[in-house]
Amino acid sequence: MKRKVLIFFLITLAQIVLTFCSDRIETPIEGGNSTLVYPSKSVNGIEAIITFCERISKQTGDPIKAGTTFAIKENAKVYTVVDLINRKFHKDKDLMFHIDWLDSSGNSLFKKRIDLKTDDSSSTLMSSINISPDKRQPGNYSFRVYLFRELIAEKKFELIIQMKDTIAVIKRDLVKDLEARITFCQGISKKTGKLIGAGNKFEIKDKAKVLAIINLENKDTSNLNLTFYADWIGPNDSSFYKKKIEVFSNSNSFSSSISISHKKRQPGNYFLRVYLFEKLITEGKFELIEAKKKEKIITKPGSENISASVALCERISKKTGLPINPDSVFTLKGKGNLKAIIYIVKNDTTRKQQMSFSVEWTSPDNNTFYRKNIELSPDDTSSTITSSISISPQKRQPGIYILHVYYGKELVGEKNFLLKENADK
Amino acid sequence: MLVDHCSYYLNSTWEFLDPLDPLFANWGQVVLRYVSYICAPGFLLINGAMVWWFYYRRKNKGLDNWSIRKQLIQRGTFLILLQMTWVNSSWSGFNRFDPWHLGIIACIGFSMIFQSFIVNWRWELQLAVAVIILVLHPILIKIPYSPGDNLLTVFMQTFIDAGDFNKYPVIPWFAVALLGSVMAHGWLKAWDTDRKRIYWGTIIGASAIIISIMIRMLRGYGNIFPFSDFGSYSFFFDQKYPPSLYFNLWFFGCSVLVITLFIAISKIFPKVFLIFDITGKVALFFYCMHIAILGVFSKRIGLFYHEGEIAATLIGVVIMMIVMVPLSKWFYKVKSHSKNFIIRMI
After folding, report:
1. What is the structure's pLDDT at A212?
2. Above 0.90 for ipTM, yes or no?
3. Nearest residue in A to B268, CA atom
4. For residues B189 and A155, what is the distance between their CA atoms, to the nearest angstrom?
5. In A297, A377, A408, B259, which residue has its Cα 20 to 30 A from A264's Cα atom?
6. A271 plus A366 within the same structural domain
7. Which domain holds residue A364?
8. Which residue has better confidence, B76 or A358?
């Protein structure tokens, strides 16, 4: 008899403890806003409604862009607003809440205790988690609210990766080693395809333009079109022209140009900034100056009446003596030479006298690094003189060089040319 | 204790459970954790009683106070060193040596050393000291300090507060040990029959519970976590690390009632606790070995580590009992015949 009484006593005690302890009904119901609610056993028990959103209004505290699906993005967050129902009936005691963010495996990501004291009349709880790609994976997440350690509400949300974001991530990865170089010029020869008037200083002229050639290096050869943005910045540091440029997978360069007419441009320093995936990948600077009279062939109508024109090339035909592929842009090479063929034009062909020419090569820092004097006797019928320099990287720097031709002390011809670095280096 | 430790290794809830501020997914997990809450108060209570028993047994053999005190200090020091070496390392399956950390065994060791100085006092005086400590502790835990790797943290968490360095501060638990010493006076001396033990045990246990409920209902002094309503889940779940006044009184009362219940049950079912008798004779060996086995097999080798839930935990308990009961029986025999200092101490 004693045994039966003892067993009955223990079982009854256990039942009372287990049923009496919980404030909540164990089976959840779907409450407002799709929140899974564990209802209170008491009439005015606190309930919670959970709302997810992308932002929260600073002025009203209301959720902005509420939903249950959110795209994983850099620096993005999911906010939650928990509205507490029947809060007004519980102002006489401290309320202990816990909020818990869980991942798709049910593991807690972030847990926080929030105590609402008796002097705090708040009826909402707020929390947020970062959903940057480096922190979160796509999947079903959930958020739980506990009151006095009892689960009172739960709601799920989904994190997704949007297709355009996925592609952007893949592209970003593929072009991480990409480098871009800008070369400014006045145009491209339709015949030779070479740059015309390459440099960093241009005269403002009507119908003139500055053309920027952007060469891409280390570009991945995969079948990927890239969208660049060329942003032209004026002397006042403001953008005056922005262009979206689609570069196809098989192309390693693209261009953008602006007009430099008097109507549109002022003298000063200009910049071109090139962006890829909202990231600045290269920047170039050039200067626009007021036009001055400058010609490549300077005719001196003075007493001597002699002028000179210059052609630059790397090789001269042995048969014809003519330049092979004359150009104004050359690449620095280990054993390369740059040759200048200077055509002397005598306007007065009857004059027979000794002619003294001087050919000066000037580097980008305005130093004459090589001078050659050439004498033509009165009997000499030749109309060309030549001069050459090495264009090895050990001796020359990239930049704009100038060749001056003097007859006596008078400048009778000049030629600008660009030496650029070898892209394969 | 075994249930909680099996849960610690096998239950996935422990992947993210913060013992200082626990949240549980369901009632099963709550019960699984809550049943272990009685362990620390029970350990300290029994240990306090054992120190009393040890003292008077030696005293009756004619040993002087200092000789007995010396033996208790020696054992207390052994327990602190055991915590810092074997126990701390066994939690990780001996994967790392981490001596600068204390726990329940060190707390028992410290309590034993402190108790050795007053165990010979009258029970009323010991009770007064225990009550004064319990009453003062809620004030002491309000002493501000910045937890970190410094001496103040070590001091605070060794004696008053709980944290990463130590979850079992000596001062409040020492008070429980003193209450054990007081109870031992009743169980082993004053109450000479089981009927008296059951009667007084029920009165004292129920009184402690009633006082703890009164403290809890006042919602202020002696409470750490707020609660919802009387009898609700949160009502029973106050802070264990460090224990609130409510927690200590509540579990002291529960422990006394459980012991009283055990006395009552063993009168009706004399053989029902035999299994606990075997393990209880070598309790320290049981403690040290079961954590080591779980640590090595579950945490270090990865066998079901944090993979299961309640069922896995309970299966783990059964398996561990199957392993530990014969092991404890064997060790008891070894210990009975051994004169080795360390084996005698375990």
Report:
1. 93
2. no
3. A3
4. 59
5. A297
6. no
7. 306-420
8. B76
